[in-house]
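Quick check before the chapter quiz. The format below is the same one you will see on the exam, so make sure you can read both the input and the output lines.
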Amino acid sequence: MGKRPTSPTARQNRTPRIKRMNQTEKIVSCRVVGDQEVELTFADGFMGRLALGKLLWGPVFEPLKDPVFFRTVKVEDDTIRWPNGADFCPSVLRCWCEAGGVLSQEETDRCFQPRTAGAV
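Here is the expected output.
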């Protein structure tokens, strides 16, 4: 079987490589400071606290309502993760920490939209 020819269009339609996470998005430590609240430290030294209680629903996150299980959180792969596989995107956690708390989906989405010149 030979190598398939690659057209310029096919090369353009490839999925872009995943962007490397920058230091502002990497979580280096996590401390539980309440039943469902964490204090996070990012690689650039930024720290923030988040109350995650209102996010704990559905089959993956429901077990985190148990304060004992919530305390089993670990920093793994630059984010926070629990033994059942529950985790949060570190970029989203940074956005929420900078905002001072968990945001709505619409507000969170704004964190990732390109800023335009002259925008206030």
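If your answer matched, good. Residues 9-20 have pLDDT under 50 and may be disordered.
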